[in-house]
Amino acid sequence: MWTADYDDQNVFAKILRGELPSHTVYEDDKTLAIMDIMPREDGHVLVIPKAPSRNIFDIAPDDLAAVMATAQKMARAVMKAFRADGTTVQQFSEPAGGQVVFHTHVHVIPRFEGVGLKPHTGQMADNDELAANADKIRAALN
């Protein structure tokens, strides 16, 4: 049985509390969509629930539904904003599944025919570039 605890000091919990900055592209009562600071493609967005949960194993079903509805909204917006050919939507749970930050989150990444994902290098993107990409996505939502 899965029993890992939620750590309220994770980076997304700190963003939700306003302790760390982020480039918000969308927010509703249950979710927040922000730019990934280490994007694998321009327009890479993360969707997080506002309620604390570690990952797919402990998120409440209504919060998971809200996250996926926002992920769908973000997929449509990044397709439009970046004239993408498709999207990749990913969710990782626990270290063996590739999870690094232990607050439930879904990656929404615009994709282009014949172009592979950039490798995850651990390098942060330029802040001005992230801000400009966030602006494009917000404009596509309107």
What is shown here, in short?
The protein is of the alpha+beta class and about 140 residues long. It is built from three helices and five strands, in the order αβββαββα. It has a five-stranded antiparallel beta sheet.
Report on the architecture of this protein.
This protein has one domain: HIT family, subunit A, CATH 3.30.428.10. Helices cover 30% and strands 18% of the residues. It is built from 3 helices and 5 strands. Strands 1-2-3-5-4 form a 5-stranded antiparallel β-sheet. A hairpin with a 3-residue loop joins strand 1 and strand 2. Helix 2 (61-82) crosses helix 3. The radius of gyration is 14 Å and the shape is globular.
Write the layout of secondary structure elements.
Blueprint: H1 11-16, E1 24-27, E2 31-35, E3 45-49, H2 61-82, E4 86-90, E5 106-111, H3 127-141
Mean pLDDT over the residues: 95
How many helical stretches? 3
Summing up helix and strand content along with how strands pair, one would put the structural category as alpha+beta
CATH superfamily: HIT-like
> What's the helical proportion of residues?
25-40%
Query: Gyration radius, to the nearest Å?
Result: 14 Å
**What's the quaternary structure here?**
single chain
Uncertain regions: pLDDT < 50 for 5+ in a row? Answer: none
The first-level CATH class name: Alpha Beta
Spatial shape: globular
Count of the domains: 1
What is the level-2 CATH architecture name? 2-Layer Sandwich
CATH topology heading: HIT family, subunit A
**How many angstroms does the end-to-end distance come to?**
44 Å
Tell me about the largest β-sheet.
Answer: 5 strands, antiparallel
